[in-house]
Structures are given as C-alpha cells and as structure tokens.
Amino acid sequence: MREITDSLLTRRGLLRTALAAGAVAAGVRPTFAQAVDRDPRWNDTVQKGLEWLSRNQSSRGQWNTQVYPTALAALAGTAMICSGSTTTQGPYAREIARASDYILTKARANGLIGDPQTDSRYTYGHGFSMLFLSQVLGEEGLIDRREELVEVLSKAVEFSGNAQTPAGGWGYVSAREGSNFDEGSTTITQVQGLRGCRNAGIPVPAEIIDRAKDYIYRCKNADGGISYSSRQTGSSRPAITAAALAALYNAGDYDSEHVPDMLAYAKETLHDINDGARAFGHWHYTYLYYGQVVYRQGDELWLPFRKKLYDHIVAEQHADGYWEGQIHPVYVTACNLIIMQLDLGYLPIYQR
User: What is the DSSP string of 126-142?
Assistant: First the structure.
C-alpha cells in the first residue's frame, strides 16, 4: 500500500481539493420544494425525526446508546447532514459539529476511529465515521479544524487498508486481530467510508478498492445474490446483495458483468417492501442500501418505489419522531432519515 505522507504541503493540497468539492456540492443543493413530487407528509416526518435526534444528543456530541456508540453517532450525524445542514450553517449545525467533535475524540494513534475496549465490532464505527467525517470535511470553515480532519481521515484510510483480509473483505475487527474473518456488511461499510474519503480529496490506494470489489464478486452466487462471507458461499443474502450493489456504485463500478445479475436478484427479492422476511430481520439496514440502489436507476423506477417505501416508513414513526427496531431507536431513526432524504441530493456519496 502506498505510504500516506503527513507533510504540510500534502495536507494543504488535500484541503484545496476538499474545499473545491464542497463548493461544487454547495452550488447544486436542492430544497424540499425542488425535489421531484415530494409529499408534504414525508417532509414533516423527516423534520420530526431530526428534531428527535437533536433532543436526544448529549452535550458531548454522542447519543447515549450503550451499543455501537461511535457508529450510531456517525449515522445520526450523517442523517442531519442529509437535511442540508453543515457544521457551520443550517438548523442542525450545532448538532453536527458536536457529533464531529465526539467522533474525533475516538480517533486513535493507529488510525482506528473507535474504542476496541467497549466495542467488539469496531469496524462498523470506523467505516461510518469515515463516511460522516468525509462529508463534514468539504464544508468545515476553520483551517485548523480541516487540517485535523485531513490527518484523522488519512490515518483512518491507512488503518482500513491494514485491516483488510487477504480475501479483500473486512470483519468485525481488523484482520490482524480477527483471524482474517470477513463478512459482507462490514465490508460494505468500509467501501462506502473509503469512497467518501476519496471524494473529499483523501488519497485512497486503488488496490484497496479493487481488492474489495474482487471480494464482492467472489461472494456472488449463481442466482446473482451475494453470500454473507467468503467463507460461507452458496447462500445468497438479499440485504448483503443490496449493500454490495450500493458499494459498487460508490466505487464507480456500474458496468461490471456481475452487476446486472446482482440487480435482478435484488429487485426480485426486495422490491416488495412488505416482504420483511427477505431482509432476514434487518429491514432498515436492507432498505438503507436498496433505496440507494433504486434511486440510482432513475425516476421511472425510483418514484413509484419511493412512494411505497416512504409511506411505509411514515406509518411506523412514533408521535415523538423516532422509530423502533433492531439495535437501537437512534440506529433505526438515522437509517430511516437517510433513506427519506436520498433524493434531496445533499451528500455526494448518495448522489446519482
């Protein structure tokens, strides 16, 4: 893996690239009104959910979830950025800045963003944190703060490269600590986080992404679906397939010979959102990624699917603004809010 230099000259070059990317993104930001045919109920639902996240954030920037604290802080912060706020402007600027502060305190000398002492599956938090902080970077207004973000993200990329298994995937912990075990959900989290870093101007060695793509292809089965792990091939998982497609799109791999089969499998198993059994109990995780996949297919497929998906999510919201489900209400609420703001186009990582 190519060495990432910490020289001031390199950091300044990265900052210029990140700022340019942020300026482009800022110039094309739509509003609720500009998105195609949005039902006002959806916007009200999003607002209630964002307000619930805001009320439940601690003054130190985290959400007191006990489980996956770093990952859930990053996901919640990402949901707020999806609304158009940044660390410096918008109604949730303070909350995003606090979440950024909290996650930066989790950055370790070896590049890991997380706490292996309290989180036995720390690669989730690491991947989601790379994604969140990379979206923060382009719009951060303070020079010293941007330099800190560049340094943290550069080391985080290096950590991810070192944590990758020989097969090209990732497991719940670094390959050096986890007997080279890998599985699909953490692999997709790393790929999206790495892609977010590259979009923000952080160097990401191409071989890391290439090996991850090859890993996904090796996990592909005859029916077009993706297996849970390279060690457990032969049984396809709809949720992992949707996540893998989203990650491949993020990596710019739209034309691979494998993509049509994967897309056909995902449509067959997931396009009916009411068949929750096909999500293997992970409905919100599944549609966080399958929503991205359908959105990238264009409005002809997206708009009718969006109505069913968003109406389903609206119907399950509690009066206070949150949703319940697996893992924690913060997790479910953040996933649903990201899904319901995909077509606002604020985050480059989710754009068509």
Answer: HHHHHHHHHHHHTT---
Q: How far apart are CA 266 and CA 137, in angstroms?
A: 33
Task: For residue 194, give both structure tokens.
Answer: 């790495």
CB 259 within 8 A of CB 307: no
Cβ neighbours for 321, distance < 8 A, ≥ 6 positions apart? 48, 49, 50, 51, 52, 333
pLDDT confidence bin for 278, thresholds 50/70/90 = low
Within 8 A by CB and 6+ apart from 16, the residues are 201
Output the pLDDT for position 36: 66
User: What topology is assigned to 8-350 in CATH?
Assistant: Glycosyltransferase (1.50.10)
- Which has the higher per-residue pLDDT, 130 or 277? 130
Which amino acid makes up residue 226?
I
- Residue whose tokens read 């990582």: 349
* Mean pLDDT on 44-69: 95
The pair of structure tokens assigned to 30 is 């739509």
**Domain residue spans in the chain?**
8-350
Long-range pairs, 250-257, Cβ under 8 A, ≥24: 250/191, 250/192, 250/195, 250/349, 251/191, 251/195, 251/209, 251/212, 251/213, 253/213, 256/213, 256/217
| CA 255 remoteness from chain centre | 22
Q: How many CA atoms lie within 13 A of 126 on its CB side?
A: 36
Above 50 in pLDDT, residue 56? yes
* pLDDT tens per residue across span 246-270: 999 988 887 789 999 999 999 999 9
- Predicted model pTM: 0.88
- Please give the C-alpha separations between residue 15 and each of 27, 143, 144, 201, 289, in angstroms, as whole numbers: 18, 9, 11, 7, 30
Confirm if 157 and 130 have CB atoms less than 8 A apart. yes
Q: Are 46 and 71 in contact (CB under 8 A)?
A: no
Pair 219, 170: CB distance under 8 Å? no
For the chain, what is the radius of gyration of the CA atoms? 19
Q: ∠ CA(210), CA(216), CA(218), 5° rounding?
A: 100
